[in-house]
Amino acid sequence: MSNTKLLSSLCYFSIFFAPLLLPAIIYFVTDEVEVRNHAKKSFISHIIPMSLLIAAFVLLSFSVLSFNTQSGAMLDGNVLFWGFAPLMFIVLYSLLFLVVLIWNVFQGIKVLK
Predict the structure, then answer these.
(1) Does residue 106 surpass a pLDDT of 90?
(2) Percent helix, strand and coil across the chain, each rounded to 5?
């Protein structure tokens, strides 16, 4: 097995131990085009759930802050929606992360073959 295949698959498998760090390091350290391509793909696939998590946290925190400043007035659908919003986000984020995890494992195995 060549070092190229091993480093490329390690970029994908790093979702288990160093999701953003290892692909970035391998991308900047290596000179081989194939390894850099796989490092870039794995870095992008690792950053998608992270950026979604940050965006949802910011959105939910601002919406909860604005909801609390409305002097406790109970608006029709807003109370129900913001009560279920964290649960909906957890379910959707879990599904997205599972898809990204499966994709990374599949790509890592595919590169090793």
Answers:
(1) yes
(2) 85, 0, 15
